[in-house]
What we know:
Blueprint: H1 12-22, H2 31-41, E1 44-48, E2 51-56, E3 62-64, H3 72-86, E4 92-96, H4 98-107, E5 112-116, E6 122-126, H5 127-132, H6 139-151, E7 154-158, H7 164-177, H8 179-198, E8 206-212, E9 215-226, E10 229-237, H9 244-256, E11 262-264, H10 272-279, E12 285-287, E13 290-294
Parallel strand pairs: 3-4, 10-11
Antiparallel strand pairs: 1-2, 2-3, 4-13, 5-13, 6-11, 6-12, 7-8, 8-9, 9-10
Amino acid sequence: MLEFKAPEIYDMAWVKEAMTASNEMACEYCFGNLYIWCKVYKNTIANYNGLFLAKDGLEKACYIYPCGKGDKKPAIEELIKYSQANDDSPLEMYCLTPQSVDELNKMFPDKFEIVEDRAYFDYIYNSQDLINLAGRKYHSKRNHISYFKNNYDWKYERISRENLPECYEMNRKWEQLRANKNGEALEEELDAIRRGFIKYEELGFVGGLLRKDGEVVAYTFGEEINPDVFCVHVEKAYPDVRGAYPMINQQFCANELSGYRYINREDDVGDEGLRKAKLSYYPEILLKKYKAIYKG
């Protein structure tokens, strides 16, 4: 029987090995992201013959599609048995890409209902597009960046052990400004970011911050999915500082991410405002994702 446990830092090596071997581009296949959010989403993980399995226990149980080297069919059969023994509903898996759907249907013909999960499509950009912002479609982004550069005494810095506390303090103030909108969700996010900052170096995060007149007004960080793809997990900027958001995005990509072909800026969780903002950067790939529900 499978044994699921909370992810710990010492799990990072084998989990990352499995995730890298999968050659996926999805943001769910990032150990650091899983680790910092595991308290919020009650994520637990399991190792099945080197394959990475994970369970989301926030509401009804949902399992990530297995990743890693090796035959996935026995692992999914084990998940079916585990779900039957422990859950009140049939096995449900998430984070299936079109490639994963094809793979699953070949292993289990007509055994799973496949449901498109639009809120969790990943927005994946060509790194050079985000660095250069060339062409008419990025005209407004360049205007906001020019305003920031021309009107403020500014500086970009890579996040380090020395300036990381300033990022957390900036994030705390940012959360306070928005607390009346969704206080519980923001508190959960603050807790996840706190976990990320505490283990920042151990998790291999890379980030950058933006100063205006010496004060941190924006920051961002993420991690490598594979040698071609970097995933941005968090990006915060004060909304009343014009140009801060496009500026931190462009500066981070230019200073830290030029060696990657793609930059995954994750999903929009179904938020229309976030969807509009992410589409405004014109993703090269809108990575479709699906859920698979076992028919029994």
